[in-house]
């Protein structure tokens, strides 16, 4: 049966209807690739109707298009009055006889081919040789809808009729090749409509500045960091939101909280300097207190500072805190630099297998950690989740370092492409930061009057950005 219920020419007498079907089989008129069309008999045509439905009297969800609420000819003639033929009135589903000289619509069928089948479109989304879950797949065209890829990167749309459709993938932080695909269902399922995802990133470099360092991102996608007009000159903080940079500049040498245009200075007791590195949605801040000879990480909550220093370590830095109060950071036990997770009074050390050193800088509310370090040859970023480390080193960059990660899995960081230091959104990069020894040397130069306090802070900020 043809799903298109209004053929060219409109109303026809019964004989004209028969002749039109003959013309379809002869190729005179559009025949959709078949040459065995005929008018349905009275019982066939009436079997389509549903008396509980009106204008047209067809079942809910029927696959037909352009059904007229009018008369459709059958091939069955009247037994008593041969000048009449049976028709079905699609407004109400009524069956009756009509003079064959009157007009009605034509609805051809083929033997055994009353096609009310529905079909499906399916495919996958690939990423870096694997498959990507959580991608929104949108269907448009002769039908519309949306779905998401499952844990194996698969998707499907079912219950589709013949027609043209466009499939479009989307997920924050990714681009897709191709961007969309248009397909046609022609009495068969359509499979293998596949896409390849690539992680996208946005460079962060405030206008007129030579370097930039992103340090954190919140769940609204607002990025914080600092930037400079030369590698060791005093830096300024920045906030990046909606494509706009703002540059708050509190008193040098102290951490700060910036909210609604107001600053709260942070300086733990006994420290000569401080840096705020992370804040959760409860307003609890973590950072570093800088005193002569050492750095100790801290938690700041309700006006109270709490030191963070794993047993046996001589210095530490606190990088970030999530909404469950889990803190990540880094430090040293005198033998090597390692990252840590602090939760409920317990420290867990982090060091990717085979690496010389590492530091944890960011954590999201799922407990996924972002950081960086070195395997002795290359500085790389890492993601730590569920006991598994994933290394990060984007193509074309010399070094990479993950700095922060939000609940959508979007990562920010810093990096060097061989020419310029830059901040990045979504794919993390890192630089060859000063060592702890460099910070001490810079501080000694300040004591000796050979460097400014701003130089010390700039060197320290680069060190703790590891």
Describe it for me?
- There is one protein chain.
- With 466 residues, the protein is mainly beta.
- It folds into three domains: 12-110, Roll (Mannose-Binding Protein A, Chain A), CATH 3.10.100; 119-199, Immunoglobulins (Immunoglobulin-like, Sandwich), CATH 2.60.40; 202-464, Neuraminidase (6 Propeller), CATH 2.120.10.
- 9% of the residues lie in helices and 44% in strands.
- It has four helices and 38 strands.
- The strands form eleven sheets. Strands 8, 9, 12, 14 and 16 form a five-stranded mixed beta sheet that branches. A four-stranded antiparallel beta sheet has the order 11-10-13-15, with no helix packed on it.
- Helix 3 (436-447) runs antiparallel to helix 4.
- The longest helix is centred in the N-terminal third of the chain and has 13 residues, at 14-26.
- The chain is rod-shaped.
- The model is unreliable at 231-237, 248-252 and 427-433 (pLDDT under 50).
In short:
By secondary structure, this protein is mainly beta. Helix content is 9%, strand content 44%.
Question: Keywords, please?
Answer:
466 residues, mainly beta, Mannose-Binding Protein A, Chain A, Immunoglobulin-like, Neuraminidase, 3 domains, five-stranded mixed β-sheet, four-stranded antiparallel β-sheet, 4 helices, 38 strands
